[in-house]
Design a protein that fits this description.
Structural class: mainly alpha
Number of helices: 8
Distance between the termini: 24 Å
Strand order of the largest sheet: 1-2
Oligomer: single chain
Number of strands: 4
Strand content: 5-15%
Largest sheet: 2 strands, parallel
Order of helices and strands: HHHEHEHHEHHE
Length: 215
């Protein structure tokens, strides 16, 4: 529901999953060889001989993020034209947002763009949701997995909150989560899930629902 292959291959392409590698973030901490011209894959790349700036690398990521978000209203209007009233927002819209080292908050840089998405969704009466990935598991026996899951859920909750949807659409803007494996002991896994669920901020709890085939 977050992919539209018709728009993805239009000219210009419309999609919401532009991403990058961590190596690209690090590379773009350096200024362009010619800062007065647009970046180019071969003719105007970051100059690694120049001092790096963490802020410059973050701005590179933020530009990708905003390009993703600004394509969502176009996708919503296309969906509406064809009677599609539901859309799952891509978890890849904000690359590495929940990463332990390179993560970042969406506000304030994406607040206005996300609010515009919410405005269009409200106008059209569309339902927006998210579906954190298969590795976002609250029942895992491994602490690093739990830590990653907590950060990922916080990221998704912030994204949905910044849409500023009307009350009913906001309540319907949920995060659909797989419970995950049973790790050899179903009861122990359920107990871990309950324990970790209790640690979640209320804003995350309010949006979290389980995939209906996880029972």
């Amino acid at each position: 529901a977050c992919l539209n292959t018709y728009l993805r291959f239009s000219n210009p392409p419309v999609f919401s999953s532009r991403t990058c590698r961590i190596a690209s973030i690090l590379e773009n901490r350096h200024p362009l060889s010619n800062p007065n011209e647009a970046p180019h894959a071969t003719k105007n790349r970051p100059d690694k001989e120049q001092p790096a700036s963490i802020r410059r690398g973050q701005e590179f990521v933020e530009q990708l993020c905003l390009a993703n978000v600004r394509d969502i209203p176009k996708m919503l209007r296309w969906n509406d034209r064809y009677g599609i009233k539901f859309m799952r927002l891509s978890s890849e819209m904000f690359p590495f947002a929940s990463h332990p080292e390179y993560g970042y908050k969406l506000a304030p840089f994406a607040s206005e763009a996300l609010a515009e998405v919410g405005k269009v969704a409200a106008e059209l009466g569309h339902r927006l949701t998210t579906h954190p990935g298969q590795y976002t598991q609250l029942g895992s026996p491994r602490k690093p997995v739990i830590d990653n899951a907590l950060r990922d859920l916080d990221y998704h909750a912030e994204m949905l909150s910044l849409l500023k949807l009307p009350p009913q659409q906001d309540r319907d803007a949920v995060m659909i989560l797989h419970l995950g494996g049973v790790f050899g002991d179903k009861e122990a896994t359920l107990a871990r899930f309950r324990e970790n669920y209790a640690k979640l901020p209320q804003g995350v709890k309010d949006r979290l629902v389980l995939e209906n085939d996880d029972n």
